[in-house]
Design brief:
This is HAGHL protein. It comes from Centropus unirufus. One of its GO terms (biological process) is methylglyoxal catabolic process to D-lactate via S-lactoyl-glutathione. By secondary structure, the chain is of the alpha/beta class. The protein is built from eleven helices and eleven strands. The strands form three sheets. Strands 4-5-6-7-10-11 form a six-stranded mixed beta sheet. It has a three-stranded parallel beta sheet with strand order 1-2-3, with no helix packed on it.
């Protein structure tokens, strides 16, 4: 069987960095986040795979909200954020006594300038995720999200708040990074509160844009608006798109 390329690329990076792969922390089961698990587990016997959803490939350790893990000096707090999927887990990492800022691996819950689609959850859940679970982390936390969709997110943010100078600056910066083929990730949590509309649902401008005052309703309306934002005229079949998003095609994409 021919192994898929990504696990081998990852193992090549690990070899160059002279580190040992001991564990995988998976945020959720979608194929674009967990597709390499089985192959890596096959190539690295004894590999531990952590996650909160039985649908995650090669899962060995089911984690729960607030659970803490240790990998050498690295400490990890598991933060359960159901909504994009019902079993979505974010991972907050830090090292005691380190001058480096902590890091949040937010999967498809919190993006630079955006948030994930509510595939298996509600606006209430996402509001809790963004305000009580992720929004209360230290402000210098670096946000490592699961996708590079910063420019598109910030174009929507500019539609929502056309007068927001921070949005304008961040969008110009993100476009420049894209042009140079450089990542826009990570941001910091502190920055996100200045330009990410999904973290700004109590602001007057957001209430005005959505026509709602209750923060959950602002968030719900905002997500619907984002889902309909500049949709391409020729859309693939919606069911097919959902099948892709839910990972239903992954067995076919993984043909040996």
């Amino acid at each position: 069987s021919i192994p898929s390329a990504l696990p081998l690329q990852l193992l090549e990076i690990i070899r160059k960095e002279e580190v040992v792969l001991r564990a995988i922390l998976t945020t959720h089961h979608h194929w674009d986040h967990a597709r390499g698990n089985e192959e890596l587990a096959r190539l690295c016997p004894g590999l531990r795979v952590f996650g909160a959803d039985e649908r995650i490939g090669a899962l060995t350790h089911r984690v729960t909200h607030g659970q803490e893990l240790r990998f050498g000096a690295i400490r990890v707090r598991c933060l359960f954020t159901p909504c994009h999927t019902s079993g979505h887990m974010c991972y907050f990492m830090w090292e005691d006594g380190s001058p480096d800022a902590p890091a949040l691996f937010s999967g498809d819950t919190l993006f630079v300038g955006g948030c994930g689609k509510f595939f298996e959850g509600t606006a209430e859940q996402m509001y809790t995720n963004l305000t009580q679970i992720l929004g209360t982390l230290p402000k210098d936390t670096k946000v490592f999200c699961g996708h590079e969709c910063t420019v598109r997110n910030l174009k929507f943010a500019l539609k929502v708040e056309p007068e927001n100078e921070t949005v304008k600056k961040k969008l110009a910066w993100a476009k420049q990074r894209d042009d140079e083929d450089l990542p826009t990730v990570p941001s910091t949590l502190q920055e996100e509160f200045l330009y990410n509309p999904f973290l700004r649902v109590t602001e007057e401008t957001l209430q005005k844009f959505t026509g709602k005052t209750d923060p959950v309703e602002v968030l719900r309306t905002l997500r619907t608006e984002k889902d309909n934002f500049k949709k391409p005229k020729e859309r693939p079949n919606p069911q097919a798109m959902l099948a892709f998003d839910w990972g239903l095609f992954s067995p076919f994409l993984e043909k040996k």
